[in-house]
Amino acid sequence: MATPELTRLERSFVATPDFSRLLAELTERERHLDAGTSSCRPEPVATIIRRTSRGRQVAFRYLDDGEPKPTWLGPVLQGFANLVTLNDNWDGEGARRIDAATINRALAAMEEVLPHDASAPSIVPLQNSGLQVEWHRNGKDIEIEFNPTGSVTFYYFDAESGEEHEGRVGPWFATVKEYLNRIW
Amino acid sequence: MPDREITNDPAIADHEVLLRRLLADWVVPGDRGRMRITSAAFKNFELSILFLSLMEQQGRPKDDALKGHPDSSLCSVTAGLARQLEQGVIYDTEPPRDPAHGLVIGKKRQSIANGFARHAKWEIPSEPPLVTVEAS
To answer: Strands A6-8 and A122-125: what pairing?
Structure first.
């Protein structure tokens, strides 16, 4: 299945070397997987999805591969639009606006992490100019924290068992996917 | 400004109530039909709070903590909880700070921030709001 590409229309997206490489690798991998398979799949078409927040419009680019859009797409884009439109001092305590490159990295991670029919997470701003994506379902909590330094960490908590884990997110979000599978 | 060398003031009793203002973005849907406080509200290294006891001495009601922030909510934790979570608590009342202002100081890993979020008590409103479904 082709990987749709989801980006926010801003220069900072291409200015994030790690993320650019990640996308290039993904694209290459999908090419290999697609080689020799059906040739009737339509070419993905770049579509613009707009969301309004705080009286401003935010545009996202989505490579539409003709498949139904993920169930989480609309709420997730609205969540990110809500971050994009925060200004400096959004917390009343002097916080800077949310880092654009961090937003783009988190957007890309959503495609990597979420099954097509997953529940949409809450997307919240951090005072260090980063952001956090979080789910609270069935007595379990999962957070993924994206920091402007580039570090990405996760947290898992099960209220019933008291099981608690946190740490750095590894390649391809493998650990996070394991925990996410516990809450769907 | 407080002396940053002092990262915990032992004169502040564990039962002191610390009020923390919650932005609307920091109140998210929980899984029991109620909104909940996100740990994002408790991640700053120097976390701004107001001492309830100082506000009372100053004749100020709790909702004074939300002055100028009509979309915000208010919750509380105790100084004792902060210390259990490896944090220090200090006064920070010098102008231009609020005369009841203080700081909860320390690195807040996700487990620590979540410890605050789980144990925080709702003050205004007094209960977590119901989750409302919004069209996406």
So the answer is: unpaired
Tokens of A184: 């769907």
Q: Smallest Cα–Cα separation from A152: which of A120, A97, A107, A86? A: A107
CA distance A74 to chain B (A): 6
Q: Tokens 């490896």, residue?
A: B86
DSSP label of A43: P
Going by C-beta distance under 8 Å and a sequence separation of 6 or more, which residues neighbour residue B95? none
Paired strand residues for A131: A125, A146
Q: Answer for the pair A100, A10: CB distance below 8 angstroms, yes or no.
A: yes
Nearest CA in chain A to B110: A155
Strand pairing report for A56-64 and A45-53: antiparallel
- In angstroms, the separation between the Cα of residue B44 and the nearest Cα of chain A is 6
Would you call B39 and A136 a contact, using CB atoms and an 8 Å cutoff?
A: no
Residue with tokens 């620590």: B112
**Token pair for residue A174?**
């493998």
Quick one: which H or E segment has residue B118? helix B110-119
What 3-state class would DSSP assign to B76?
A: strand
pTM for the complete prediction? 0.85
For residue A10, give the nearest of A134, A97, A123 by alpha carbon.
Answer: A97
Please tell me the distance from the alpha carbon of residue A17 to that of residue B118, in angstroms, as a whole number: 37
Q: For A28-57, what is each residue's pLDDT tens digit?
A: 444 444 444 445 667 888 899 999 999 999
What ipTM does this complex have? Answer: 0.92
The C-alpha atoms of residue A33 and residue B40 are separated, in whole angstroms, by: 39
Smallest CA-to-CA distance from A53 within A13, A81, A27 is with A81
Q: What is each CA distance from B106 to B83, B88, B89, B117, in whole angstroms? A: 10, 6, 9, 16
Residue of B nearest to A153 (CA): B110
The structure tokens listed for A159 are: 């209220």
